[in-house]
Amino acid sequence: MASSDISSIPTPAHCTADFCLIPIGTSSPSVSAQIADVQRLVEKSGLKYVMHSAGTTLEGPWDRVHQVIGQAHTILHQQGIVRIQTDVRVGSRIDKEQSFEDKVNKVRELLGKEFQPRKATALISSGSVAN
Q: Which InterPro entries match (predicted)?
């Protein structure tokens, strides 16, 4: 980068972002209500997404994905949560389009018949995860 002006450097057009938002200092150790509010926002965003046990994966235009993560912070701050910690992992590539589903399916294809995923319900017993 020869120039010190970074304003002309574009962001990638598309990305996949996995984020885990953690409200800090709430009156309860449970944050499921806040996560449900974030999921409502994500659903309304129009982005492709999947919620999982440790966060949410978003897919779409770079700026929109990051905007939604910021909006998630804002809706929780508006509820009186003064501090939020979010871990974000972002991936982009320019050689081809590849969705998060494509990535998972490729690994499953490589595993072939040896891959027998356990159903999540089989792992959960009496509200706790079985070892």
A: MTH1187/YkoF-like, Thiamine_BP, UPF0045_domain
